[in-house]
Design a protein that fits this description.
It is built from 4 helices and 15 strands. It is an alpha+beta fold. The strands form 4 sheets. A 5-stranded antiparallel beta sheet has the order 3-4-5-13-12. Strands 1-15-7-6 form a 4-stranded antiparallel beta sheet. A hairpin with a 7-residue loop joins β12 (about 140-145) and β13. The longest helix has 23 residues, at about 1-25. The N and C termini lie far apart (about 50 Å). The relative contact order is 0.21.
């Protein structure tokens, strides 16, 4: 009987220690699970937005669309934007980009074409922020995502096939740096 009581006491002590450890590390656990999205929603992080001044220019190989996939078109301080895929549909190309940022417990940052703002009702409003050009012809926005990945998002543009086949150079303007810093 005494042995059972001792086992129960040890078990309860271990359970209490584990509970305290989880409680004190909940931020670390949530950050590991959700990444930048956790920082965006967390009131303990300040959020700032800054437009990137420089344009991003890159060439598209229209003869071998798959060769463009996973090409990093922008890289700065650990943040990258890459071509995720290119699809030719009728007389248009759709170029999908993925943005990847960095984060730790103190800060996070992402350079992207999508603005992610937390509204007062704790919902996120996502909207395209960047512009895409072929020469001086602006391309149509196609789609964008919220912070779907722990470290980033996706956005895409529709490009006229004849314009791209003639010029082959694409320019992204107004990329956005989103910074989250622990207060």
């Amino acid at each position: 009987m005494n042995r059972r009581k001792n086992i129960l006491i040890v078990f309860l002590l271990i359970l209490q220690v584990v509970s305290v450890c989880i409680f004190y590390n909940i931020d670390k656990i949530k950050l590991m699970q959700e990444g930048l999205r956790y920082q965006l929603f967390n009131m303990n992080y300040s959020i700032s937005f800054q437009t990137i001044d420089s344009d991003v220019c890159f060439d598209i190989d229209i003869n071998n669309l798959d060769s463009n996939i996973h090409t990093i078109i922008y890289e700065n301080d650990g943040c990258t934007i890459m071509i995720d895929s290119i699809i030719k549909k009728d007389e248009k190309y759709i170029i999908y980009f993925s943005s990847h940022g960095i984060y730790d417990q103190q800060q996070g940052k992402l350079i992207t074409g999508v603005e992610h703002k937390v509204l007062s009702n704790k919902k996120i409003e996502d909207k395209i922020y960047a512009s895409c050009f072929i020469g001086n012809i602006e391309c149509q926005n196609n789609s964008f995502s919220g912070l779907n990945f722990k470290d980033g998002d996706e956005f895409s543009f529709i490009i006229d096939a004849k314009s791209l086949e003639r010029v082959r150079k694409v320019t992204l303007k107004n990329l956005l740096l989103i910074k989250m810093e622990k207060m």
